[in-house]
Amino acid sequence: MKKILVSLAVVFGFSAYALRGHMPHLADDEEAPLISLNRNTAVQPTPTNTAVVGNTNTTPPTNSSVAVENTNTTPPVNTNTASNSGAYTNGQYTGSVVDALYGNVQVVATIAGGKLTDVVAAKYPNNHGHSIEINRYALPRLKSEAIAAQSAQIDIISGATYTSLAYQESLQTALKAAAK
Amino acid sequence: MKKDTRILMGMPITIELVDSVATDEMLNKVFAWFQHVDETFSPFKPTSEVSRYGAHDIDEKNVSADLRYILREAEATKQATNGYFDVYHDGHFNPSGIVKGWAIQRAAEQLQAAGLANFYVEAGGDIAVNGQNDAGTAWRIGIRNPFKPHEYVKVVQLSGQGIATSGTYIRGDHIYNPHTGRPANEVASLTVIGPNVYEADRFATAAFAMGLEGIHYIESLHGFEGYQIDPSGQATMTTGFAKYLPKS
Q: What's the pTM?
């Protein structure tokens, strides 16, 4: 019996010694963690918010990192396409990115009770992942100012237009993805 | 003076002809040109040449002269801008970022050929101006407030140049690009003034895709000036932009 106990003690002692190297070293004023025989590796958090860019066939998580905003200038949604109860599967669907000639348009459609209940505009960056090779240091510092409304008389206005057609097109692709 | 606005190519198009010799027929001809451009280049019309080309129903050998020209110009612009200008978006062919400026430019040339010297052609915020307005001064153009579409925040005076504005409207929260972690909309609006509206349009389109770097890219281009508004309402302008501000 005694021999078994001594043997076990040796085994445990040796295991503890061997595993020492795998334990995180503690500073003198730190408390010892619960003994764990698992290697303590850094874990990369799994991204829960996947990019919705260009994905028309996946259902993005409802808590998306892409903030959506309600625009008040949306064209009236043709709910006749969703009048057939149950025509769509519940969830949120992101439409294709559509070129609105200036900037891109992408909508997020919400289906509840089988019907289209909400459409909001998601924003989408024009990002090519390139880097520009401009020697910024050789260029002069550019002047900056806060914008302010002007009242001088003008003939024409130059500004980006938010075409409703692009909006509709993006919505159509979202509804396609939602259709059963 | 002849002036009219019609909705074509999915946007309002306004033409004003100041010369007394201007006729309704000249006006109608320009609108007919935009109608033709729409039928050929609209990415929303399945029957357009652009849609058919994008669907590979026709190949490069069989495209019209206009589309062939646009394809060549699109490639040249892509090279010139390090790929920031690209008519392919997610695999879809859409040359709208170059067609609009080109169509306005062609319209202006048509009017010049008809003998007019004082007019403007405006489509979706891009403008070609020639000569003077009906008050006899340079054309006065306001740059739209991207946060309040009924306001304008800067006035420039042009005579013979082209002006193009790229941008999106922003209301409320910042949006972040999950790929880069940077704000998705770095630029609310970028206005470019160039020797003509075709040049202004293609470089405004490319520079807008560069985010906040865009204005510096415009600064590096000889003959172009720019006015860039960021999401916080701060505007940055190129060093030569002041020459377009009203003298008075």
A: 0.65
